[in-house]
Amino acid sequence: MKISRCNTSIICTFVPLLILSFTMLAYSQEIPENILKNGDFDNQLNEWSRWTHESAEALFTTEGRKAEPIFGKNVAYIKINKPGNALGNIQLYQQPFTLEKGTTYTYSLWAKSEEPRNITFRIMHQGVPWTVYAPKSINLTEEWKEFYNTFEMPVDDVNSRAGIIMGTQTIDVWIDHVRLYEGEYVSDIEGTEPHAVHSTDKLTTTWASLKSQK
Q: DSSP 3-state assignment of 27?
């Protein structure tokens, strides 16, 4: 079949545009670099710190296949024996790293619990005045769910800290695939439905208002 010059011209114009569109789409879906290290806990709890208040008692470890990891071969498992008197009395966190003023970041994680319960994940300054930039409370169930919080940094901070606090309840917690990266939320696991948690209150608070949660 002979193709007319007109049709050939249309094809020659359309095909490059189609290729460019697919290229731009693929680029927009590139997975951003994770600022956090060992976010999938495949290297056990290396790079992660743990802290419990004297009123609390918890065992921090990793679990493998039985825990049904979202990504990789391990998850973080926090077995809580004594809940403490405040949410911040049991903590899993990583530090230090640098975050830049005016830059948008997304902090995301997968979590589940032995029974329905509440925990908080947050970005804060490690040290006086313990400024908290992006605290978000989330409700866990027995099923894995992804949660994320996108925020803009109000200041430069070379000593930032990403953490999960889970005191006040004697209910075990599992954590997996923790990410912190520049930009809006990007899904990197096909077929999942993340739960966005948007900041509706004042993002930046200080140690004075969060003393009971340290």
A: helix
Question: Would you say the C-alpha torsion 124, 170, 84, 44 has a positive or negative sign?
Answer: negative
Residue type, 94: Q
Provide the CATH topology of domain 32-213: Jelly Rolls (2.60.120)
Tokens, residue 41: 């806990």
Tokens of 188: 């990197």
Q: Where are the domains of the chain?
A: 1-30, 32-213
pLDDT digits (tens, 9 = 90+) for 96-144: 999 999 999 999 999 999 999 999 999 999 999 999 999 999 999 999 9
Give the C-alpha separation, 11 to 165, whole Å. 58
Contact criterion met (CB below 8 Å) for 151 and 123 = yes
pTM value is 0.78
Taking the mean position of all CA atoms in its chain, how far away is CA 27?
22
